[in-house]
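Handout, page 2. Input:
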Amino acid sequence: MPGPDHRKASLWFAVAFILALALFALWPGLDIAVSGWFYRPDAGFWLAEDPWVEALRNLVWDLSILAFVLSAAVFV
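Output:
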């Protein structure tokens, strides 16, 4: 089984990065517009009231901390 092609992966990453830069350069308010779909001026972010969404958010946060700690441990 051949190993991963790092050059090809780097090229795809660079292309994706440039496309993301172009997207937000052409539409700088895109992130605000999309987050506006989930925000009510009188109530704030309505999805924050859903316990399943909050549990998912906490799980992702905890997994990111775990990934950092494991990476640091492997580095050491």
